[in-house]
Amino acid sequence: MARLARRTGIVDRPVDARRMHARVTPLLGGLAIYLGVMIPILVLVKKDPATMAILVGGSIVAVVGVIDDAAEIRPVLKFAGQIAAIAALLAYGLRIDHLTVPLTSITVTLHPIISIPLTVLWVATIINMVNFIDGLDGLAAGVCAISALTFAAIALSLGRGGTGVAAAILAGAAFAFLRFNFYPASIFMGDAGSMLLGYVLAVISIQGVLKGAATVALIFPLLVLGVPFADLFLVVFRRLRKGVPIYSPGRDHVHHDLVLVAGFSQRMSVLLLYGWCLVLNGLALAMRFRATVAIVVLGIASLAATASMARLLLRYRSGDEGAGGQDGGVGGEDRGGGIDGPFGSAGATRGRQSRPARRSGGMIGR
């Protein structure tokens, strides 16, 4: 894929000071992830509605992502592609149709008027959360691999074999991609990869976890995807507090703080976020299997890790280093630096080498 990306000019070029990678890097890693997910699912997983939603919807977001990586399509078109993928999910009958109140046996059945918009919001949020954390070499791939592996264990324990196997396949593809994407990355996943990973995780969270009757079913995805959720909350909170539009560019994501504020290297920053993700995922597994001692130990560890990260991440920076500043990216994989958001990355200098770099629009600055 790297060779194909170079031949076609679908690369990321470090043309300004915001980028920490120093060489032209291929962008078709998402296509490799797509093949690594879809082919095994086609061969190994029963073609039930959830599987079909993954195959059809995943293909839609992957195609849209590849087109964007190659030609930088308008943000509204990228968002339309996400909605089309979510529509496929709904067409196959997948939606959040009930919720179990945490720590109780109370189950609330949701009317389609509520469940359909809730499903759209949930899936779109997860797709773009993954895009947001795609800011340092190996960060998005590693976090998604850990999360998918946890979802696999939970889904299989709930008797949802097809969804569990699909989650395990996603984890395998993401782990395999890390061989080439961990710092220093030789290839980036691009929007094709980040949107695909987010979409498949969203489908798995709905069919394999939220539809379960466990008293902590709602808590599972919040813990498993805790790091991306924390990053999303941090960005929105900071920008609202500063009185700037949430779609403004800025260096105010979790990975920005670890590199720019705390002074960690890219590799160490990613490893710290892996550790935080592992602790939260471990707690989710302990709660699923009702391992009391593990719940206590991992619960304390999760609180300590989250509190430590919060102390660091809630520091505000002055001038153009905060939200709304002119510099939007720091990471090797962060091709942002302009405006982006529910439609993916922006400010990217992607595309064919024969054309000059240009900025693309989005909504929430990555």
Descriptive terms for the model:
two-stranded antiparallel sheet, disordered C terminus, mainly alpha, 4 strands
Walk me through what this model shows.
The chain is mainly alpha-helical and 366 residues long. It has one domain (2-321). The protein is 61% helix and 3% strand. The chain has 13 helices and four strands. The strands form two sheets. A two-stranded antiparallel ribbon has the order 1-2. A two-stranded antiparallel ribbon has the order 3-4. Helix 7 (161-181) packs antiparallel against helix 8 (190-210) and helix 12 packs antiparallel against helix 13 (292-313). The radius of gyration is 19 Å and the shape is globular. 55% of the residues are buried. Residues 318-332 and 334-366 have low confidence and may be disordered.
The class by helix and strand makeup works out as mainly alpha
Strand tally:
4
What strand order characterises the main sheet?
1-2
Order of helical and strand elements: HEEHHHEEHHHHHHHHH
- Number of discrete helical segments: 13
The portion of residues assigned to helices is: 55-70%
Number of spatially distinct domains: 1
Largest sheet: 2 strands, antiparallel
| Arithmetic mean pLDDT | 81
Task: Provide the gyration radius in Å.
Answer: 19 Å
Overall spatial form: globular
Strand content: under 5%
Spatial separation of the terminal alpha carbons = 25 Å
Low-pLDDT residue intervals, each spanning 5 or more residues? 318-332, 334-366
